[in-house]
Amino acid sequence: MSWEDNVRKVVPYTPGEQPKVKNIIKINTNENPYPPAPAVQEALRTMDVDQFRKYPDPTCDVLVTALSDFYKVDKEKIFVGVGSDDVLAMAFLTFFNSDKPVLFPDITYSFYDVWADLYRIPYRQIPLMDDFSVKIDDYFVPNGGIILANPNAPTGAQLPIDAVEEVIKNNPDVVVIVDEAYADFGGQSVLPLIDKYDNLLVVQTFSKSRSMAGMRVGYAFGCKKIIKYLLDAKFSFNSYTMNMPALELGALAVKDRAYFEKTVSMIINTRERVKKQLIELGFEFADSKTNFIFARHKEKSGKEIFDFLRANNILVRRWDAPRISDYLRISIGTDEEMDILISKLKEFLNK
Amino acid sequence: MSWEDNVRKVVPYTPGEQPKVKNIIKINTNENPYPPAPAVQEALRTMDVDQFRKYPDPTCDVLVTALSDFYKVDKEKIFVGVGSDDVLAMAFLTFFNSDKPVLFPDITYSFYDVWADLYRIPYRQIPLMDDFSVKIDDYFVPNGGIILANPNAPTGAQLPIDAVEEVIKNNPDVVVIVDEAYADFGGQSVLPLIDKYDNLLVVQTFSKSRSMAGMRVGYAFGCKKIIKYLLDAKFSFNSYTMNMPALELGALAVKDRAYFEKTVSMIINTRERVKKQLIELGFEFADSKTNFIFARHKEKSGKEIFDFLRANNILVRRWDAPRISDYLRISIGTDEEMDILISKLKEFLNK
Q1: Which of A22, A74, A253, A344 is most buried (most C-beta within 10 Å)?
Q2: Is residue A45 in some structural domain?
Q3: Same domain, B133 and B251
Q4: Which residues pair with B136 in a beta bridge?
Q5: 3-class SS at A284?
Q6: Distance (Å, whole) CA B193 – CA B186
């Protein structure tokens, strides 16, 4: 008998590489190439450091109010956390406590099975169709909860929201989480459905469309009852998860709607241009509504291309996993960064 | 059958009140009355907001390195998190997975039973002696883990470290967590014991002695093996728990040893003076080695005094709980704040 017998042993999630060297084109973790809203920089200059000696507001009111104003949703229907990973980790703990398996696609955000393993939650990974689309009938079976990333990651494919609604409607006895980390880049959100279905939790993040991955801010929408349950669990874990800079600067980032819309449409424009160029170079991919493209080449292996780009200081993401090992997930950077990517790909392909 | 049947229902921890009005003497949550180290303010002014678009370093290296240098402990023996609450919440999840009960005192940090309830961990609360001391023999029984706050909260009493060592030594088959949130204010740390006992986890925080409650930084020390298990669980929960300001400003706060020692000794000096004044006014308390005094009056009820102070814009903390309902936990503020407290107490007591 040893204390190690009672350790919760797990195989942790592996985040994308965060290289410490400079001069690398880092398009491997779906970060935003543009800085946060200008008010964030200004607020940092004038922030009163003396306030740091006090605990932050546990209700996160300044941030929740800003989200409430932006999305026209009651404050009691909003939850905030340390990135959408924190929100999702708390949601798994709060809602997925059945003996039946939680359902999610075989190719999706690779943290879902890690959370299920951490909490010893049974789960079943349902294969996507060959074109990476979700067959919703697969989710009309007894289960302990459902989580769908929409648009999905790393595929980038969007499931139409009427299909998502079918999944929610046909599963009234479990919580359905829709992870919309990438929904701002031209996808559609199921946010309006929170008043129609009390079993729906919609999760979004500041890490992509609001250029704040480094600040760790995520949020969720749901009916008052589902948010109350989530808050109770969160307050049983850590009263003060979000620090003062995250609350204050996060609120400022939400308030600047014009900057948000401008930078999002810049990324969409770059993405659409890069799609055409990749097709010309012989790549194929499901149509992306996100800030990345998940593509494979018709002739070259994913590993070959990945290694060539890595050697040329361009970092994309690749998984050595079934069905997707020939794919590269390429985040949308600035136009300049994508020009260098395309030119290096031409060099590799002799085009 | 409803999705609510599978919700993890809990009674959350209630943090101390965070009043939104100004002009209140807030000595209810053991915050530090002095601002963080001067370098923190300076760094805020020059922080590059563009970096916020990227994910923070998941290894938290800048902060871990600063702690390693300060405490002369290998980096592999250090864990950091979003306040010591986050560190403790992850430690409960990682290490307390036995069918036997986790042991802790009946009067201690009131989050311990909340975490146990959240994770459905069996636990047993062992009564402190009448003088609020821990009888260590009570912990030499079969159990699934032990957590001791030392100095204890809210009592402020320190258990001698040779007694803590007896508890660790006699429980080699479980993890013993020593929560040293208040150890910097004249208490003794068991940190040197991490190289002697592989079942020891020592937890500390920036919220008290480093004036950074609002930044949410906590940390733990243990042998390499225990820290590795904790990191695995943490990376299965959220890859990036600590945001860039917490990492950068936290590291600067650690580096300024002179400021740390100066402000800690100012608080100790104020505490020792206030102890004498409280005794003169008819209060009694266990000797405190923390930044608070847990005191009751020989004649007046705790509720009477609490209500009088509250009406006079002085906020202290009181629990309506067995054995301690007549006690007030008074955080040590500035000398000026404590002078006002003492003068109001004199007014109430007609002295």
Answers
A1: A253
A2: no
A3: yes
A4: none
A5: strand
A6: 18
Place of tokens 């309006």: A192
Which H/E stretch holds residue B220?
strand B218-221
Q: What is the pLDDT of residue B23?
A: 86
Domain membership flag for residue A44: no
Tell me whether residues A238 and B44 touch, CB distance under 8 A.
no
pLDDT number for residue A177: 98
Q: Which amino acid is residue A273, in one-letter code?
A: R
Is A237 inside a domain boundary? yes
Beta strands B292-297 and B283-285, pairing class: antiparallel
Q: What is the mean pLDDT of residues A280-292?
A: 97
Regarding whether A236 and A174 lie in a shared domain, the answer is yes
Residues of A in contact with B198 (CB under 8 A): 3
The DSSP code sequence of B259-296 is HHHHHHHHHHHHHHHHHHHHHHTTEEEPPP-SSEEEEE
Token couple for B202: 């020592």
Tokens coding A13: 């999630």
Output the domain CATH number for residue A183. 3.40.640.10
Cβ–Cβ of A47/B51 closer than 8 Å? no
pLDDT in tens, B32-56: 999 999 999 999 989 999 999 999 9
Q: Mark yes or no for CB contact B54/A213 under 8 Å.
A: yes
Name the domain boundary from A201, A230, A256.
Answer: A256
For testing contact with chain A, the best of B216, B225, B332 (most A CBs within 10 A): B216
Which of A55, A97, A249 lies at the smallest CB-CB distance from B29? Answer: A55
* Inter-chain touch A240–B8, beta carbons under 8 Å: no
Q: Give the residue from B224, B255, B286 where a domain finishes.
A: B255
- Name residue B146's beta-bridge partners: B103, B176
Q: How confident is the model at residue A1 (pLDDT cuts 50, 70, 90)?
A: confident
Q: Are A203 and A263 part of one and the same domain? A: no
Residues B181 and B314 in one domain: no
The residue range of the domain holding B203 is 46-255
Closest-CA residue to A326 (of A292, A347, A302, A290): A302
Chain B residues closer than 8 Å to A173 by CB: 1-3, 5
Q: Residue A344: how many CB atoms within 10 A of its CB?
A: 18
The CATH number of the domain holding residue B298 is 3.90.1150.10
Reported as a single tens digit per residue, the pLDDT across B177-226 is: 999 999 999 999 999 999 999 999 999 999 999 999 999 999 999 999 99
The neighbour count for residue B278, using CB atoms within 10 Å, is 21
- Sequence-distant contacts of B189-195: CB under 8 A, at least 24 apart: B189/B161, B190/B150, B190/B161, B190/B164, B190/B165, B191/B71, B191/B73, B191/B221, B193/B161, B193/B165, B193/B168, B194/B73, B194/B77, B194/B221, B194/B222, B194/B223, B195/B223
Handedness of CA B251, B267, B189, B123 (dihedral sign): negative
Query: Residue B28's pLDDT is what?
Result: 95
Q: How is residue B227 written in tokens?
A: 């820290």
For residue B40, is it within any domain? no
pLDDT > 90? residue B124: yes
The shares of helix, strand and coil residues in chain A, as percent rounded to the nearest 5, are 40, 15, 45
Q: In terms of domains, do B217 and B304 share one?
A: no
Shared domain check, B269 and B133: no
So what's the ipTM on this one? 0.96
Tokens representing A55 are 């605990």
